[in-house]
Write a structure and sequence with these properties.
Oligomer: single chain
Radius of gyration: 17 Å
Distance between the termini: 35 Å
Structural class: alpha+beta
């Protein structure tokens, strides 16, 4: 496990499996697939699934809160770490994706970024109402 980043899921925080790599690894250190497949076989010794390259895999994206993607394999940016859109019209989709996947300690930063974009697009906009609408 990376020492500077905590496990993605803490016990009881998300309803993940007891052997989910998110319980031991930070986000981005494992891949997420839509469902079990032969592409990520189960290893009965460890109780986990791995890619052919040995990357740990979570097979329940709805439980871990990340959309399926080869995060570790392709070194992808996590949804809440993705740069926010410059267009205020795209903030709603970005905000939902980011907050759905983000660990609680990342929420404030995501909301601050969204607020900044919305304020810049229209100084008279009620940012709180716009954020509520995006999350509603």
């Amino acid at each position: 496990m990376e020492k500077d980043r905590a496990p993605f899921s803490q016990e009881g925080e998300r309803p993940v499996c007891a052997v989910c790599p998110s319980l031991l690894l930070p986000g981005g250190a494992f891949d997420v697939v839509a469902k079990p497949s032969r592409d990520c076989p189960f290893d009965p010794v460890s109780g986990n699934r791995y890619t052919a390259a040995g990357v740990p895999v979570c097979v329940h994206p709805e439980r871990v809160g990340l959309p399926p993607a080869p995060y570790a394999t392709d070194h992808l940016v996590l949804p809440w770490e993705a740069p926010p859109p410059g267009d205020a019209g795209e903030v709603r989709e970005w905000l939902r994706a980011a907050l759905t996947a983000a660990p609680p300690d990342a929420f404030a930063g995501v909301i601050a970024q969204a607020s900044q974009i919305l304020r810049a697009s229209d100084p008279n906009l009620d940012v709180t109402a716009a954020l509520r609408s995006a999350l509603g």
